[in-house]
Design goal:
The structure is a single chain. By secondary structure, the chain is α+β, with helices and mostly antiparallel strands. The chain contains eight helices and 25 strands. Strands 14-15-16-19-21-20-22 form a seven-stranded mixed beta sheet, covered by helices on one side. A six-stranded mixed beta sheet has the order 13-10-9-23-24-25, with no helix packed on it. Strand 17 and strand 18 form a beta hairpin. The longest helix is centred in the middle third of the chain and has 15 residues. The N terminus is likely disordered.
């Protein structure tokens, strides 16, 4: 492909990105009258981009044949045309594909046009997106991360999901969505009364968001709702999203032991039925790659050049049942990652030649997240809250941390979300009950557009030192709306020359709250 013809920042502000409609001069097929044409209903996405490939996604309003063009220039000169793909009701008219054989460190422009399968001459307007492939050599890298979108009843107001727009201003190479990508259990109302007498108004609302999701279509609608926000659409058009999931893609704090018998919101009482529908919707509506060895798998590694590997964990699918979490031995019931995922992670970490190994975990390691927040009992995350030697799910994490130390694996950094505030933790074995590990950092961000909560208590099994926190005060209370400003994301910059990694914790108004630069440990 040709050299980059347009900067990322220029494309962000172009009509192609903001309007989600291509403006190139390439000859296009005949257009029928507007009311007869198919249309793209929820924008365009890219994701799971590496040095030579990347996933792209869109959705049409009817059965359509989607034509694809790929180019290294915004005007689509010398574009490569790919074989078309068809949409159908079976996948809710979504389509996604892996673009391959791409040049490394290259801006990639992709364009889609849809033809009505019932009238192949009825052709849509084009839709255009872009992403940048990972480098094959050392260069500066920037990415953002956060989690928790449209939770606790806070949906799309007049401002929209502003934090997405703030992230877009930084033109990251990719956005890592650390779980709770939707709130399938978060029914919304048109208006919410605020303590100060104001009202929050969900100016955009669909029927599927007025109740908890139970059917496959209702789960699909959770993502379609988020993609009705102008800021989400604009970021997706110019920045790949790397997705992982947590609990709210299904329902709050779900595990195999979840009992819905007394929950009147649900007519479907089987957590297994709901989880299966939610998982199918998750894979249909996002750009996550398919893993042939385990279709539906969420954990994976994305290699992003010689400076960065990202390891996405799934702390939900293979866990034992939520409970006291005080087992003395590691069993399937006391695991949170599961035996196969742990084997995979150890192998991939050991084989990684990247300078930095980012471990994307949907829940923090040392914060106490109760399964029953009212009674403060049961473990929902890793920590059991007893501040003692490793027990329960902590056993699996202790095993992993010991392995990382003994295998000589350096420069691991954990990024997470889930708790709806932002913090920086330094895990110090000298302060820990379990001490057989090397020190490491964990950074917490979110919510990106949900209620703000916290702070959570710390469990000293792994010795977390709190270096920074921004959370609601006692006077502010809990479940603050996005309009209160306590919406957070993180930025990670890796310097291509020094290989230093800098983490900044940011709020939705783009204020820098905390910054730390980490020097890489050099191999002997």
């Amino acid at each position: 492909m040709n050299k980059i013809s347009m900067t990322r920042r220029a494309f962000v502000t172009s009509a192609s990105a903001v309007g989600l409609v291509g403006a190139s001069g390439l000859a296009l097929p005949y257009y029928s009258r507007a009311n007869q044409r198919p249309a793209f209903t929820h924008g365009i996405q890219s994701g799971d981009v590496d040095a030579t490939s990347g996933m792209v996604w869109t959705r049409t309003d009817r059965p359509s044949r989607v034509m694809f063009e790929v180019s290294s220039t915004e005007n689509f000169a010398n574009a490569v045309r790919l074989a078309p793909l068809d949409t159908s009701p079976a996948s809710d008219y979504t389509v996604k594909r892996l673009l391959t054989d791409l040049a490394s460190d290259q801006d990639i422009f992709y364009r889609m046009v849809a033809a009505d399968l019932a009238d192949i001459n009825a052709v849509s307007e084009p839709i255009v997106g872009r992403f940048r492939t990972a480098p094959a050599s050392k260069r500066d890298i920037r990415f953002a991360w956060s989690g928790d979108t449209a939770g606790q009843g806070w949906g799309i107001d007049e401002t929209g999901m502003k934090t997405y727009a703030t992230i877009a201003k930084h033109t990251p190479d990719f956005f890592l969505h650390s779980g709770d990508t939707v709130y399938a259990d978060g029914a919304m109302k048109d208006e919410v009364d605020l303590p100060n007498g104001d009202k929050w108004k969900n100016t955009v609302l669909i029927d599927e968001k007025r109740k908890v999701a139970e059917t496959l279509d209702e789960y699909r609608a959770q993502w379609k709702y988020n993609m009705m926000d102008k800021n989400v659409l604009a970021l997706s058009a110019i920045c790949p999203t790397f997705y992982q999931w947590d609990d709210h893609e299904v329902l709050n704090n779900w595990s195999d032991s979840k009992d819905l018998t007394a929950d009147d919101r649900y007519t479907e009482k089987s957590i297994h039925v709901l989880a299966a529908r939610a998982a199918r919707a998750f894979h249909e509506m996002t750009t996550i790659r398919y893993e042939l060895s385990e279709p539906g798998r969420v954990y994976r590694k994305i290699a992003y050049g010689p400076l960065l590997d990202v390891f996405f964990l799934d702390m939900r699918s293979y866990r034992g049942p939520n409970g006291p979490d005080m087992q003395e031995t590691m069993t399937p019931q006391s695991r949170i990652l599961g035996e196969q995922q742990i084997k995979w992670l150890k192998r991939e970490l050991a084989n990684s030649n990247a300078t930095w190994k980012i471990i994307a975990a949907d829940m923090p390691l040392g914060l106490v997240v109760w399964n029953d927040g009212t009674k403060k009992v049961g473990a929902e995350a890793v920590s059991n809250g007893d501040n003692g030697p490793a027990k329960g799910r902590e056993l699996e994490i202790a095993h992993l941390l010991r392995y990382i130390k003994n295998a000589g694996i350096s420069n691991t950094v954990w990024l997470t979300a889930d708790v709806h505030y932002t913090a920086a933790h330094y895990y110090n074995p000298d302060k820990a009950q379990f001490q057989d590990f090397n020190p490491f950092w964990e950074f917490v961000s979110g919510p990106i557009h949900s209620g703000t909560f916290g702070p959570n208590g710390s469990d000293m099994t792994f010795g977390p030192e709190l270096k920074f926190i921004k959370a609601p005060t006692a006077e502010q209370g809990q479940n603050l709306p996005p309009s209160a400003g306590l919406q957070f994301f993180g930025l990670v910059d890796i310097d291509g020359a020094t290989e230093q990694l800098t983490v900044r914790l940011m709020d939705r108004d783009d204020s820098e709250l905390y910054k730390v630069t980490l020097d890489p440990v050099r191999s002997a």
